[in-house]
Structures are given as C-alpha cells and as structure tokens.
Specification:
Length: about 280
C-alpha cells in the first residue's frame, strides 16, 4: 500500500467531518460538550473531550463500515430514505436546544464519577456519531467506497483495514481538535462561566437549536430536490454551504500534520496547566 493512498484516506476522513450534509452537527456536538457539569480542571476536561470524541468516532466509523460493506449493493434505494432520517435528527436536536433554552438540564456527559456514567456517556456519543454518519452518507459515501471499500473487494483485506482506520482517524482528528479546544476554552473561563450561571446552557441550547433546525431544513430540502419540487439552489443552503466550504478548505490546507500538531499542543497546554495548578 502506498503512502499516498493512506494520506488520501486520512484527508477524506478529515473532510467527512465537515461535509455539507452533516456540517451543522459538528457545532451541535460541541454544544453538547458544554451543557454538562464543569469538569474539575483542564486535565479532566481534555480527557473527557478525547474519550467522548473516541466514542463518537467509533459510532461514525461503524455506520460507514456497515453501509460500505453491507448496504452499498442497494445504496441507490437506501439513500432515498436518508433525508427523512436527517429531518428527524434535526428536529430532535432542535427539541433538545429548546429544552435547554427553557432552563432544563440534560444528563451530564461526565467521566469522573463511575464506570456506569462513563459507559452511558460513551454510548450517547457513539449514538450521536452514528447519527452524524447517517446524515452525512449522502455527501461522503462515494469517496469512502472508492478509497476503502474497493480495497476490500479487490481482496486486499489488510489494506482495506488500514485505509478504514486512516479514514476514521482523519474524521476523529478534526472533531477531537475542536472538542479539546472548546474544553480548554471553557475551563479557562470557568470563573466567568460561573458568574453567567444558567446562561451558558441556554446559549448552548440556542446553538443546538439553530444547528438542529438547519439539519432538519437540509433534509427537507434534499427531499424536495429528489421529488423535483424545489430548485437545487436555496439561499439558506447556499449561505451555509459558503461557510462549510471555507471550513473544509481550511481543514484541507492545514492537513493531517498541522491538525495533529495543534491537537498535541492543546493536550500539552492542558497537562501543563494542570501540573502548574497542583
């Protein structure tokens, strides 16, 4: 297996994290990270972000693996129903946002209480990652099939496994870097956040509601386009697409080495701050 093919799989996974179909789910995920109890210290916040991102990436990769190897023979018929899932998922996220705006609380995604709590948090994030993948399949399945699944079908099992892991790693790197950055920012502003009190979950709820609303709108737009009842161009979709293309372009320019360096730097900063505080 050439290094170029492996790099291509990593890049495809990185861009899958900011694909047009599921782009709004990334800020939704980051919103969920800041709605729970504040972790005690930067080290715990970074560890929580990394572990939850691992759970989300596992859910994302599992759906793509199943779809690529099992469902792809009937992909044309299956993809017709995916926009309906996107609509339902967007409505659920918007409902969670409204719940937070009303001053209610979600179960904390905590990793410093008990094994049962950790398991529940990982399951929740794996389910979110699976939903992220299902919403993104329409925009990302073609590169995945071309790069990863074709290797399996050509008889190169180990090559296919390596490319699959590279694809999942690229996606997890983008999400993990953003999650650790948000975790460190939230921890460094803990004093201000405490003064703001209930405003933080409400702000996160507002972002979650907007993200969910857009996801539902995108799914409904896809349904109307498939039915021929809507123009391919829509002002809302075009505006969000401009932002998505800018983010995807930045991710592509930074590349795997750059993002990995940023993630390592953030983890080192969190660890150094934890040691200094002790």
């Amino acid at each position: 297996m050439s290094g170029g093919l492996l790099a291509l799989a990593v890049t495809a996974g990185m861009l899958a994290a900011v694909n047009p179909c599921g782009f709004a789910l990334l800020p939704a995920y980051l919103s969920l990270l800041v709605t729970g109890d504040q972790p005690a210290g930067r080290a715990t916040a970074v560890r929580r972000a990394l572990v939850l991102t691992a759970g989300m990436t596992a859910g994302f990769a599992t759906v793509f693996g199943i779809f690529g190897l099992v469902v792809s023979p009937v992909a044309a018929s299956a993809q017709r129903y995916l926009p309906w899932f996107t609509v339902v998922l967007g409505c659920l996220l918007a409902g969670l946002g409204l719940w937070l705006l009303a001053g209610r609380r979600l179960p904390a995604l905590s990793l410093h209480r008990s094994t049962a709590q950790i398991t529940l948090s990982l399951r929740s994030m794996a389910a979110f990652g699976a939903s992220y993948a299902i919403a993104s399949i329409g925009c990302t399945i073609a590169p995945f099939l071309a790069i990863v699944v074709s290797s399996f079908r050509a008889g190169s099992v180990w090559t296919g496994v390596a490319l699959f892991l590279a694809y999942a790693g690229g996606m997890g790197l983008v999400v993990g870097t953003a999650a650790v950055a948000v975790a460190l920012a939230r921890t460094s502003l803990v004093g201000r956040l405490r003064r703001l009190g209930a405003a933080v979950p409400r702000l996160a709820g507002a972002l979650l509601m907007l993200a969910g609303g857009y996801v539902a709108y995108y799914g409904w737009w896809e349904i109307r386009v498939l039915r021929g009842a809507a123009a391919a161009k829509d002002p809302v979709i075009e505006f969000a697409g401009t932002i998505q293309r800018a983010v995807a372009g930045s991710v592509d320019r930074i590349g795997f080495p750059g993002l990995l360096a940023v993630l390592v730097l953030l983890v080192v900063v969190g660890a150094a701050a934890a040691i200094r505080s002790r």
